[in-house]
Structure formats: C-alpha cells, structure tokens
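All the exercises in this workshop are built on plain-text protein records. Instead of coordinates, the fold is spelled out as a row of discrete tokens. Once this layout is familiar, the rest of the handout is easier to follow. The record below serves as our worked example for the rest of this section.
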Amino acid sequence: MEAYDTGSDARQGRDGQEDPGRPGGAAEQSGEAAERSGGADGTTGASEAPAPRTGVAALSPRYQVGAVVALAVVAVAVCAHIGLVFLHVAPSNTFTKQHGEVVDEWVFPEFEQNWKLFAPNPLQQNISVQVRADVSTADGEIRTTGWYDLSAEDGRAIDGNPLPSHTQQNELRRAWDFFVSSHDSDNRPVGMRGTLSETYLRHIAVQRLDRNGAAGEGGTVERVQYRSRTTNVEPPPWTGEKVSDRPEYRELPWWTVPVGTNPEEGGAGDGAARTGGAA
C-alpha cells in the first residue's frame, strides 16, 4: 500500500525519488541540467580553440602557390611519360609514323617495354648463348678453346639464389636480344645499333673468358666467336602437339679483339684477355 505525506502534495515513489509528474519538477530538472551544461549567461560553455592547420594549408600563400606549381609539373611529366610509353607499345599509328624518333629517344634504353611475359604466344624455346676463342699462348702458338656455355653459367649462379644480381639475370640475355634485333639473317648489322651490339657482346665475351681463365698463363685472347643453341620447350601432354627436340645452332663470324685494351696495359679487365672494340 502506497503512503502519502500529509504535509506535502508530492507523491513518493517506491524508490524514494520524486515523481516527475510533480508540478515544477521537470522544470527544476531541466534547469539543473542547464546549469551543468551552460553558464549563468545561458551560453553552452567555453568555446574550443580551432585545430591547427597541417600540410599545404599550413604554408604561407607564396609557398602554397609554389607547391601547386610543382605538383602540376609532376603531373604533366607523369602523363607525358605514360603517353610516350603507351605509344611505344601500341600498334603503329599516324603519330608514331610521324614522330616515332621522339618516342624512341624517350623510351630507349631505360624504359624499353616488351610483352614476352604476358604475350598471347610466349616464348616456347630455350636459347643458350655460347662462346669460344682463339688464344695465342705464351710460346707463340694459336689454339682454339672449346665452347663455354655462358647461359648455363648464369643459370647456375641464379639457381637457389634468393637475390640474384641484375647482371646474372639480364646482361647476357639482353645483349643477345639486342644483337638479334639489330642484325639480319646473315648476321649483318642494320644501322649504328647493330655495330654497338657487336661491341657490347665482344666485351662480355672477353670478360667471361678471362673469368674462366680461357687464355691460360701468359696467353692472350685474339678472336672470339659466338653461337646460340636453340631447343624447343616440350609442350604439355594434353595438347597433343609434337615438336622437334633437335637443337638448332646459329654461329656468328669471328670477331677480332683489338690490341691496346689488354688489362695488363691498364684495361678494364682483371686477367690476361683483351677487351674488344669495333672490329
């Protein structure tokens, strides 16, 4: 049974709290809330300080203009680079026919693109590059070395190496691709790039032969000769395709190693072989 206080018109609830229905009770509560949240003048408390500016907004107007100009220059350069690379890999069109030299000058050699990895018809052959040399021995005789498989040497250096060098992975492969793309089927150079590719291959040959000690004690490399050994990759059994497993060879002519670049005479090598220039 609920009780009433005879001295007050307020009804006491079961938990001993005032009845919110009491006249003036809600007003008093809202007034107390207003006093807690606001000041005496009715404001909502002290205003917070504005957050400090960061990034470009924190710069002075002069530096903001400089940052915008710099970003605009970078954006234009990136767009121009992407556009030139796109024109390089895109099919021949009117622009590349008229301005192909401009595109090539920008792309080669740092940004050269090829599609061998994602091509619809990826390479299906293993190409091994080999070299041999004519060596003049210490007693004045000339002997011809056996074939050194340079591709196999690079493969052994890469196999099991989690961080192989760029030289081991690409130097010989790119040099051979450079030669093939700049020579005709008779191994004759096409333009200045063809001559440059021969010089590049000749230097690689002399360095590798020197590393392998091909000249021997007191010997000197006089001439070098390259050849490639191409074998087909066996297709998967489910294709039913049959390919020949007989290797094909492409032999290049002998290249003379010029006199005057012997490492013992201050050349770039570290052995007895002579580095090559243009024949």
Remarks:
- Residues 61-89 form the longest helix (29 residues).
- The longest strand covers residues 220-232.
- Strands lie at 125-136, 142-144, 148-149, 220-232, 248-251, 255-256.
- The radius of gyration is 41 Å.
